[in-house]
Amino acid sequence: MKVLLAAMDETGIAAAAELAKNGFQTVFYTPDPYVEKKATEYSPSLHRGVSKQEFIKLCVENKFTVTREPEESYQEVWITVNTIKEGRDTLHSAENLVKTVGEKLRQVERLTFSGLTKPGECRQLLKLFTRSSAADPTETNYAGALSTAGKLLPAWSSSENPSPVLEKLGATFFNSPELAEIASLSNLLSEAVEAWTLIEMAVLHGHMELVMNCFTRDVVLYQEHLDAVKAFRMHRDTPLLNNLYTKMRKTVYRAEASALSQVREVSRKYRREFRLLVVGCSEMVGQRFVDALKGRRVRVSVLDSEDVSLEKLGSFTGFDGAVVAGLRIDLLRELSKHFSHVWFVPMV
Question: Alpha carbon of 33 to those of 15, 92, 150, 307: distances in Å?
Fold first, then answer.
């Protein structure tokens, strides 16, 4: 079965990779040239759950393709949106995508909205598609954040015999799209709290082995988890989640201060300059490490996680220790094989 998956940002790439991995001929479309380019270049943080070899095989077999212009007719169309990106209301971006895709289609048998939406927005987007498109789907669906590949995929369908795609993905069905939307947000938030509890215990007790051994995925949290957390900043009706993001940031500050303190302590024992590699963070975060260690006989080199692959990490010689400043546990695991001094500073 050929499935068109349309998206506005990089999370759609992960969703498309998940569909292709499950055996569906997936055509990825985005009106954003930057995202289109990213979709064709393998990245473990974007093509989640698929190795580079698997991705190449999917492309060769035409299970994963990228198009600049969708065909007019598809049996199944997925539109992946995020209306709480960075915790802000971005419904207008989702609406623009729906209009763009809808105007290009003439015939669609099944239409599924997927991703992060606030309760009630799925119905709004379905109505907008109906007004914008000549296509008249016989079945409409909602599926949660497929891009996170979590334990649960909340879904809703207008049909008693829903799409075989949803069945293959093991979706859990609810009686209304609003309930499925709430379940999807709840799922992301519970995963975020569970993961961050482990991070706090690791920071409190100073044992990064907890992080490396207790997570089955390669990252602590995906961006979609953080988007959901940020959406509940100062949300008075949810005391547990109220300002959770700010509380997470406090843990980051503690982890960063602890790592800096330990780097200073270790460097004092060296008779020469201590060479530190900081991987996975933005230039601004990297500069914080440079400034904090200035005059301490520590030379800091900073690398963005997108500029380094796991295969190349073994070639980074000449360093005495490394800091993984980000959410990628795969980098932490790999660097621990090459350096005796490794610190983990989660960045949100």
Answer: 18, 19, 28, 20
Least confident of 135-149, 211-225, 281-295: 281-295
Q: Which residues pair with 6 in a beta bridge?
A: 29, 79
Q: What gap in Å lies between CA 291 and CA 260, rounded to an integer?
A: 11
Number of H helices, E strands in the chain: 12, 12
CA dihedral 267, 272, 277, 281 (to 10 degrees): 60
Look up the pTM and report it.
Answer: 0.92
Amino acid at 227: D
Cα distance between the two ends of the chain:
38
Per-residue confidence (pLDDT) for residue 206, from 0 to 100: 86
Architecture per CATH, 2-175: 3-Layer(aba) Sandwich (3.40)
Q: What is the pLDDT of residues 44-61, one digit of tens each?
A: 888 988 989 999 999 999
CATH 3.40.640.10 is the classification of domain 243-345: yes
CA–CA gap between residue 257 and residue 325 (Å, rounded): 12
Contact 154, 172 (CB under 8 A): yes
Backbone angles phi, psi at 136, to 5 degrees: -130, 85
Which DSSP string do the residues of 265-319 spell out, in sequence order?
HHHHT-SSPEEEEEES--HHHHHHHHHHTTTTTEEEEEE-GGG--GGGGGG--S-
Q: Where are the domains of the chain?
A: 2-175, 243-345
**H or E element that contains 155:** strand 154-157
